[in-house]
């Protein structure tokens, strides 16, 4: 069955998001809408919709004109094996000592690295996104500085790539949790694929709200690669869950949001140690005051 995309560009974040919101109300409605700042320095934003049936091009033209956007370009997409396509496009990622790869690149794993197998079908947490990459680099920095994590948790673990990275280099089992049941199943499957089943404890939980997390606290390292809103809400619980001088690696933060997150965590006695910017995303390493 053919599918369709409709893409346009315009200037300014606010108009772009307004156009994206308006696209959600089209008939036929798109199955997804994306709004992205173009990284070419032009100041333009791209707005696009994905449709399972041919979109109303007249309605799109009216929307574009009313928002000051260029005319939408509508394209029909051929049927594609997207997993196979992603496998071709998704090259391995190196982040310090860690090497994240799909099974199709198993022959490229270099000697002396810490390999982490994440299949291409696992969309978020392959290491290619700036947030995951930033967290892996932050972990590598802490380990290079002599830290040995004996009690580590990955909150909002997704594929559990961060929990597995910690389990690769440190002696004790790592606790991986996610609010989504499917993510927890994915975490367990990835642990098995990486021969880490006995090194990861995977639980379904919102934040730190789980008996396993409560019984294992305080932690000397917590990963929280989620989003600004949940991170801000999590700050008081993070302060309770971290051991004195314990670290947290925080990501899922747009660059313009980072100062707000730093301030909220400082108010909870957790201060900034390192900040890394990768594209649009910032990763923060913070430490609880003794």
Automatic annotation (TrEMBL):
Main localisation: cytoplasm
Reaction(s) catalysed (UniProt annotation): L-lysyl-[protein] + 3 S-adenosyl-L-methionine = N(6),N(6),N(6)-trimethyl-L-lysyl-[protein] + 3 S-adenosyl-L-homocysteine + 3 H(+)
Gene Ontology terms: cellular component: ribosome
E.C. code: 2.1.1.-
Main EC class the enzyme belongs to: transferase
Annotated positions binding S-adenosyl-L-methionine: 132, 156, 178, 225
Extent of the signal sequence: none
InterPro entries: Ribosomal_L11_MeTrfase_PrmA (IPR050078), Ribosomal_PrmA_MeTrfase (IPR004498), SAM-dependent_MTases_sf (IPR029063)
Subcellular location per the Swiss-Prot or TrEMBL entry: Cytoplasm
Alphabetic keyword roster: Cytoplasm, Methyltransferase, Ribonucleoprotein, Ribosomal protein, S-adenosyl-L-methionine, Transferase
PANTHER family assigned: ELECTRON TRANSFER FLAVOPROTEIN BETA SUBUNIT LYSINE METHYLTRANSFERASE
Function of the molecule: Methylates ribosomal protein L11.
Family recorded in the similarity comment: Belongs to the methyltransferase superfamily. PrmA family.
Full protein name: Ribosomal protein L11 methyltransferase
Species assigned in the record: Sulfitobacter litoralis
Organism taxonomic ancestry: Bacteria, Pseudomonadati, Pseudomonadota, Alphaproteobacteria, Rhodobacterales
Name of the gene encoding the protein in the UniProt record: prmA
């Amino acid at each position: 069955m053919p599918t369709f995309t409709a893409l346009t560009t315009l200037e300014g974040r606010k108009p772009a998001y307004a156009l994206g919101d308006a696209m959600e109300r089209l008939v036929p409605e798109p199955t997804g809408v994306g709004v992205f700042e173009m990284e070419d320095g032009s100041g333009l934003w791209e707005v696009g919709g994905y449709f399972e049936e041919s979109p109303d091009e007249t309605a799109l033209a009216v929307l574009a004109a009313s928002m000051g956007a260029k005319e939408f370009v509508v394209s029909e997409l051929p049927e594609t094996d997207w997993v196979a396509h992603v496998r071709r496009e998704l090259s391995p990622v190196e982040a310090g000592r860690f090497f994240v790869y799909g099974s199709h690149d198993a022959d490229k794993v270099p000697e002396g690295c810490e390999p982490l197998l994440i299949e291409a079908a696992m969309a978020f947490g392959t290491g290619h996104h700036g947030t995951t990459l930033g967290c892996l680099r932050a972990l590598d920095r802490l380990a290079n500085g002599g830290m040995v994590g004996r009690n580590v948790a990955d909150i909002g673990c997704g594929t559990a790539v961060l929990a597995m990275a910690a389990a690769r280099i440190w002696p004790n089992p790592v606790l991986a949790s996610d609010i989504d049941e499917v993510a927890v199943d994915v975490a367990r499957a990835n642990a098995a694929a990486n021969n880490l089943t006995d090194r990861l404890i995977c639980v379904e939980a919102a934040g730190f709200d789980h008996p396993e997390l409560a019984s294992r606290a305080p932690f000397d390292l917590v990963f929280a690669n989620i989003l600004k809103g949940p991170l801000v809400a999590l700050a008081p619980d993070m302060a309770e869950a971290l051991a004195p001088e314990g670290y947290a690696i925080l990501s899922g933060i747009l660059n313009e949001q980072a100062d707000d997150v730093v301030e909220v965590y400082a108010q909870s006695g957790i201060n900034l140690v390192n900040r890394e910017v990768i594209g649009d995303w910032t990763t923060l390493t913070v430490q609880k005051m003794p």
